[in-house]
Amino acid sequence: MKKQLLLDYLPIAHELNKGHGVLWSNGDSWKEMRRFALTNLRDFGMGKRACEDKIIEECDYLIEVFKKHKGEAFDTTQSVNYAVSNIICSIVYGNRFDYHDPRFTSMVDTTNKRIQLSGSPSIQMYNFFPWIFQWVGNRREIHKITTFNKQQNLELFSHLKETLNPQMCRGFADAFLAKKQNLEESEVTNSYFHDDNLMETVLNLFAAGTDTTATTLRWALLLMAKYPKIQDQVHEEVNRVIGSRQVQVEDRRNMPFTDAVIHETQRLANIVPMALPHKASQDVTFQGYFIKKGTTVYPLLTSVLYDESEWEKPNTFHPAHFLDKDGKFVKRDAFMPFSAGRRICLGEGLARMELFIFFTTIMQRFRFTPPPGVSEDDLDLTPRVGFTLNPSPHELCAVSCE
Ligand code: HEM
Description:
- By secondary structure, the protein is mostly helical.
- It has twelve helices and nine strands.
- The chain has helices at residues 27-43, 49-68, 77-92, 102-117, 121-128, 137-162, 172-185, 195-226, 228-241, 256-269, 302-305, 348-365, and strands at 9-11, 278-280, 284-286, 289-291, 296-297, 366-369, 383-384, 390-391, 397-400.
- A hairpin with a 2-residue loop joins strand 3 and strand 4 (289-291).
- Protoporphyrin IX containing FE is lined by residues 22-23, 34, 88, 204-205, 208-209, 212-213, 216, 271-272, 275-276, 299, 337-339, 343-347, 350-351.
């Protein structure tokens, strides 16, 4: 496992790769975009108190939606997606959206569709053998959605440009536009701050910042409904440590069991099983195999997250993987859902903060159960096929604890 970290990966050309942005690019453009994204995402709150406040505010909206179902069974997909998406939207565009705003809901719904399609067998085959599988229908569908998402962003950018004040940037997109304007005024012509990089980076942040975290949260709620005794232990800890006051990130260090449940959810759900495709940036010998520079490499995170030599019960939901004999939280080297190395997930800090606050606040208010007539055993943990592994379609009851 450690040797894997020595490989210096760079992503390869791919169905969704136009060579721009922070996710599907490499070389100097990637370096510049990653650095700029990290600095600005932090400036706009990532990992800080300001962001914590945004997540707390969004929890209130999400809880209202859950309450409206009055304990009856419903599908958590859309509401959780919208709530999580609003966090990255606040950071990128400088504002959240109403859950009934069709511009927003269509952007979230189609982005999730695009992510699902890009993991379909036909697209996977296309990625391996592009010259044979270039005509597959899902490719056309992905292009249609991408064009639609770009059009929506062009409209948002156009409004941001009209109202831009470089001294008072509202979010990442403003900061990018201000930097671009500044470079143009200084007559720098060869910079990476061009419209294509703005578009691709915003699309990357929106997709990566919505689907992954929302999917993980939905797995956590499903697992709570399936394992009521574990849910009881989470409720006990939430009541004892927080009671009815507002959850804060600092609470995490006093809540080892809840923290272990979140980590174990991420491990078992294994939502990005193949990370992103990379290429070896130099010749390397790995576990006795010679890998030539330029070879496409898929770092299989599953092989680490389910490694039998690392985990006592790799195929079982077992929060004790992250607890010592005294019930204290323990970090595990093989916990790698965000990948590792130079291309490690750029949003890890944000995702961890979101998962803790959303999950703990939801657990403070609700108990999750299977729908009437469905037993805990009936709840299916088989993932739906996609680029990220989502739970299969299901409904849950959110019963108010108040
Ligand atoms: C539970 C939530 C998340 C998980 C499990 C996750 C996982 C991953 C993984 C496995 C990668 C690929 C790393 C590689 O290439 O080997 C990645 C990349 C990335 N993630 Fe996340 N991610 C999550 C949340 C987020 C969030 C909230 C953001 C938003 C800021 C984000 C932004 C990105 C970006 C921009 C990259 C590309 C980084 C680069 O190539 O330099 N992710 N993520």
